Amino acid sequence: MSQKFDVIVIGAGPGGYVAAIKAAQLGMKTACIEKYQDKDGKMALGGTCLNVGCIPSKALLDSSWKYHEATEGFAVHGISVKDVAMDVPAMIGRKANIVKNLTGGIAGLFKANGVTSIEGHGKLLANKQVEVTAADGTVQVYEAENVIIAAGSQPIDIPPAPVDQDVIVDSTGALEFQSVPKRLGVIGAGVIGLELGSVWARLGAEVTVIEAQDKFLSTVDEQVAKEALKIFAKQKLDIRLGARLTATDVKNGEVTVSFTDAQGEQQMTFDKLIVAVGRRPVTTNVLSADSGVTLDERGFIYVDDICATSAPGVYAIGDVVRGPMLAHKASEEGIMVVERIAGKKNQVNYDLIPGVIYTHPEIAGVGKTEQQLKGDGVSINVGVFPFAASGRAMAANDTAGFVKIIADAATDRVLGVHVIGPSAAELVQQGAIAMEFGSSSEDLALMVFSHPTLSEALHEAALAVSGQAIHIANRKKR
């Protein structure tokens, strides 16, 4: 007799483990299957995000920024420091400890909520049966009333740059460097490439980012993307747009990269090369042929608006389904699915999922961009406030960037909030809250904001939508 559960979750990433905890909280007998193992060969919960993604990269970003401030930013505050040095192995060790604490925390939450943790590779069979293959090859089959597939994603491999996790690495390998490479190449100027490139550039690496697209950060608001490109150039990130990788050649511990751009054939040699061209869903060997679940042409699991697949009682969430590959999107989908199973009417608002790039300055946005709205033929009003006019930003010596609010010209409803600058992620979340409640720019303009704060930049941008900003000169309406 196979063991039966009310809910089985395949994958313990930010979508899967959150769904499992929620299901257990709602009184369902729940199991969560995870195959990922840490360096000690023990199961590690938390998925890509916690183990080799969001959390470890932010640890390195924060460590490298503190080093950068100590070497280049303290003097303006009157602070003198000598012989500042970065102990890279210690930085990597700190990152590893943070990951260990958090993965252990999820295991504790599973225990506290009564979630059964199953180690191995999960595969959905017909009739909501789930086959689990353990590391030693033993196989066990479980039954469920409901199955949630949250298998996540993995880095895309490209033939011209085969990853060896030594000289040519993916995003996982880039978190494990034990010294600062003198010359670092990055393939891909997306979120991952820019964040990882920033870490090592701050520590002294000469960083070149090779991006095939002609447009920088094409999904970000154009005004924000243009500002970001200027700032990154000042930070000595050499970003080559319209550059298509053709080959790599590894010899004597370095790699020669061949690519074509507007100037023709180019070659550059690096000590390390990071391949960060995107991620693909992990759906291979997760579904049996008779599982009843349908994949689209890109390998994503087809789901409807509430993440139900084509097989009754089977759901899929996170990176294996449509939409942005973001941890917070996966988590909210997990909550939605479990509450739907419990008979509730939860729904994710896919129009208001914030996106963040954790460079410095941060880049964040929620809602539609100016180019999207103009493409849709929507008449808009725009308010922009620069951090250079913010007293709090000046006090922190962190004045790059601006806050931008876009409102419907007819209704004044806020349609998008985009920020490049200090605490951009936190400020955009304020915009998301306002937009969730259908706020107008006037609503934000009439609110009282603490002084002095970075949040005042959001307030002033809201005032600027109607040409009423106080602390900058307003543009005259034509």
Characterise this structure:
With 478 residues, the chain is of the alpha/beta class. The protein contains twelve helices and 22 strands. It has helices spanning 16-25, 47-52, 54-73, 88-113, 191-202, 222-234, 327-341, 370-375, 391-395, 424-436, 441-446, 455-465; strands at residues 4-10, 30-34, 116-119, 121-124, 129-133, 139-149, 153-155, 168-169, 183-187, 206-210, 237-240, 244-251, 254-261, 264-270, 272-275, 279-281, 314-316, 355-357, 362-367, 380-386, 402-408, 414-421. The longest helix is centred in the first third of the chain and has 26 residues, at 88-113. The mean pLDDT is 97.
Set out the fold topology:
Blueprint: E1 4-10, H1 16-25, E2 30-34, H2 47-52, H3 54-73, H4 88-113, E3 116-119, E4 121-124, E5 129-133, E6 139-149, E7 153-155, E8 168-169, E9 183-187, H5 191-202, E10 206-210, H6 222-234, E11 237-240, E12 244-251, E13 254-261, E14 264-270, E15 272-275, E16 279-281, E17 314-316, H7 327-341, E18 355-357, E19 362-367, H8 370-375, E20 380-386, H9 391-395, E21 402-408, E22 414-421, H10 424-436, H11 441-446, H12 455-465
Parallel strand pairs: 1-2, 1-6, 2-3, 6-17, 8-15, 9-10, 9-15, 10-11
Antiparallel strand pairs: 4-5, 5-6, 7-16, 12-13, 13-14, 18-19, 19-22, 20-21, 21-22
Helix pairs in contact: 1-4, 1-7, 3-4, 3-5
Descriptive labels:
478 residues, 12 helices, 22 strands, globular
Strand content: 15-25%
What spatial form do the alpha-carbon principal axes imply?
globular
How many strands, what sense, and barrel or not for the largest sheet?
Answer: 7 strands, mixed
Low-confidence stretches: none
Tell how many strands the DSSP assignment holds.
Answer: 22
Number of helices: 12
Give the distance, in angstroms, between the N- and C-terminal Cα atoms. Answer: 76 Å
Average pLDDT works out at: 97
Structural class: alpha/beta
Radius of gyration: 24 Å
